[in-house]
Amino acid sequence: MFDEVKGFQITFGRLFRPSVTINYPEEKRHMAPRFRGLPSLRTDPETGEALCVACGLCARICPTSCLEMHIVPSEEGDRELGEFILRSGRCMFCGLCSQVCPVDAITMSHEYELSVMDRDGLIYTKTELGTIGGQLPNWWEDGTGEFTGTADAWAGTRDGKALLGPGVLGKGVSR
User: Which end of the chain is more exposed for a tag (fewer CB within 10 A), N or C?
Assistant: First the structure.
């Protein structure tokens, strides 16, 4: 009998608290700074061309083989990225492609609304990924070029640093 009263006490106590529900289509939740969404291509702001040097490391390291590259020879004797295709239905958003890129041409965007009615809508080309990527900073940086976070630091806070107090990183480790 006492357990039921105790349970109702908790229920009534929470009944009058303010709601924490987010009305999703109108309000969007703040994603973690290192959230890995859709991989996207970064572009040069002056020329609008993708920063990719067509090395092919991203396609080779991808565990699901969701990246497809068609490389064409350029006039200078180098190689250029002719076509870049991402099959996001196969992608597991691991971020290996963006970590291995030597020129940081691929970054993980904060795009997470990827639902479509047809599977063909899950295939992205070079121009679509360049539009999404634009000049996004690398997903593991804050945009300044210097890594300021710690791995897995985000746990419900907006900037990911509020929960890190002294001694959280381990004895003798500082930021």
Answer: N
